[in-house]
Amino acid sequence: MVFSSLLFLAIFLPVVLLLYYAVPNRLYRNIILCIASLFFYAWGEPVFVILMILSIFMNYGAGLLIGKYTRLNRPGAKKATLIVAVILNLLMLGVFKYTPLVFDTLKAFVPSLRSMETPIAKQALYNAMGTFIPALRNYKVGLEGMLPIGISFYTFQAMSYVIDVYRGDTGVQKNPMIFGTYVALFPQLIAGPIVRYKDIEDQMQGRRESAEQFASGIKLFVIGLAKKILIANQVAVLWNQLRADSMGNGALGSWVGMLAYTLQIYFDFAGYSDMAIGLGRMFGFEFLKNFDYPYISQSNTEFWRRWHISLGTWFREYVYIPLGGNRRGLGRQILNLSIVWALTGLWHGASWNFVLWGIWHGFFVVMEKLFLGKWLKKWPKALRHIYSLLVASFGWMLFDFTNLPQLFGFLGSMFGGGGGGLISHDALTLTLSYLPLLVVACIASTPLAANIRHKFDGKAWAEYADIGLVLIALVFCIASLVASGYNPFIYFRF
User: What are the respective helix, strand and coil percentages of the chain, to the nearest 5?
Assistant: First the structure.
């Protein structure tokens, strides 16, 4: 992890906010944000901040060249610059993220490679790259092979800028410090949402901070922190215990395990997204919503309009529509959807289970386009909801298990395999001890609480109640962080 949670809350964030608001000039504030963001990223793995700086200047330069060739009316050179920039971005992402997947796949077909460990191969690659990036020359790859944190997020952001400049959807940013701030901005750097430059172009230089916006940012940040610390981390403990002994859980115990992971991944990622949006507001930014209660969906298509909205928007704008979208007939639309979903799965991780996860969701999206969507409209609302939840939840099993035999073993236990009966004594005890949390988490994954709160908008007592609840939640979060070192984050791997 880049920063420990307590170090971030107690020192880094207060210091950056103090420095930020101590200077009145917008340019200086962007400089402070840029330096702080690079420092934030470099804290855990200093070598990889070089990679980020390289990405910043590469895409900044590409934007300048495309702007120049646009003015000179040289469409060929303009297009060539775009192609080179996209290839370099994808090459950087591919080398640092997908080397293990490529190498492990090759080992299945080239026997002589089977005795060679992936980290050794990646170390050799890093040594070779040391010719161009000296800091990598003597860098030691860990047991898992090092993955630059957040590389998928900031690479997609930088690429979207270059593509939008090419399309004329956004202006060329001539100040490298402002562009660097956009790419490295620490509130959403390592966990998203993926922020397109055209969505915050005006905010980069013309945002106006306010006390009201700052207060709403604190509130949203603490809500996200509570989702992560008080819900996601706790149900993760239940999931890890049930996952470890799937053969002994009994069928019902394994179903509870799947529910626990389904809740964990939502509150984990949605919590960090809320924190990022809240932090953005503290610095005057308004990022677009990234989650919209996906577990109330009534189809898989709707689920993906509500889950990780920024990623879905990115693939729609920069892959699906350029491929032709739905403009070239049903057959081409299905092909385009299949490509997008395979890439969506691959984006999430360098393992074939993520590709299968993408194909799983792509299959149901395509089926809903072909005929299933019409059938669903005739189903009762409750059945549509159950269908959407089951598709998402079984998909999360593909997402979590990188070992396919373990996945099939767990799925088998859900349907009576493993000889554990309906539910084992240990699984029942665990389930009962976590039942209140599971109930709270299920309710919190719906807009019920938000809808009730909206009925009291404008009431003074409701505003004071909000402040009190935020303070209580913050105290509980800090107490939990102090008491436990267990603070995993699923999406750091991406």
Answer: 75, 0, 25
**Catalytic residue status for 361:** no
- The reported pTM is 0.88
pLDDT at 236: 94
Q: What is the mean pLDDT of the chain?
A: 87
Q: Which residues contact 2 (CB under 8 A, 6 or more apart)?
A: 40, 41, 43, 44, 149, 190
Evaluate if residue 150 carries a pLDDT over 90.
Answer: no
Which residues of 295-336 form beta strands (DSSP E)?
none
- Number of helical (H) and strand (E) elements in the chain, helices listed first: 23, 0
pLDDT at 280: 93
User: What is d(CA 80, CA 14) in angstroms, rounded to the nearest whole number?
Assistant: 45
Distance, CA of 262 to CA of 390 (rounded, Å): 10
What is the Cα–Cα distance from 342 to 67, expressed in whole angstroms?
33
Task: State the DSSP string of 180-237.
Answer: HHHHH-GGGTTT-----HHHHHHHHHH----HHHHHHHHHHHHHHHHIIIIIIHHHHH
Rounded CA-CA distance 24/259 in Å is 49
pLDDT in tens, 470-482: 999 999 998 888 8
Do the Cβ atoms of 334 and 270 come closer than 8 Å? no
The Cα–Cα gap between 183 and 176 comes to 11
State which amino acid sits at residue 173.
Q
Show Cβ contacts of residue 403 under 8 Å, excluding neighbours closer than 6 positions: none
Give the C-alpha separation, 6 to 8, whole Å: 5
Q: For 75-113, how does the pLDDT look when each residue is reduced to its tens digit (9 = 90+)?
A: 999 999 999 999 999 999 988 888 777 777 777 777 666
Cis (ω within 30 of 0) for the bond into 193? yes
Of the residues 348, 385, 425, 454, which is catalytic?
348
> How is the chain split into domains, by residue range?
5-207, 213-493
Average pLDDT over residues 130-145: 50
End-to-end Cα, the chain, rounded Å:
13
Q: For residue 299, how many C-alpha atoms fall within 13 Å in the half-sphere facing its CB?
A: 20
